[in-house]
């Protein structure tokens, strides 16, 4: 069973999550030859004040 974890800075709408879930599931299914029903996807929304790039918080960029 493939497990996929996606982490994003900030919030996504339900519609965005649905689109990501479908697209990623389709790609993994095709590339790995696994049935879509076996693919488990986690979408983690991280607060923009909890992520830094190059020493600067994302929310300050």
UniProtKB/TrEMBL annotation:
Pfam families cross-referenced by the UniProt entry: Tautomerase
Residue intervals of the 4-oxalocrotonate tautomerase-like domain: 2-60
InterPro entries named in the record: 4-OT-like_dom, Tautomerase/MIF_sf
Superkingdom of origin organism: Bacteria
Key words, A-Z: Isomerase
MF (Gene Ontology): isomerase activity
Name of the protein this chain belongs to: 4-oxalocrotonate tautomerase
């Amino acid at each position: 069973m493939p497990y996929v974890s996606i982490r994003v800075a900030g919030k996504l709408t339900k519609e965005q999550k649905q689109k990501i879930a479908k697209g990623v599931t389709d790609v993994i299914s095709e590339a790995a030859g696994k049935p879509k029903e076996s693919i488990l996807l986690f979408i983690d929304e991280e607060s923009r004040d909890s992520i830094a790039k190059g020493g600067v918080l994302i929310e300050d960029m």
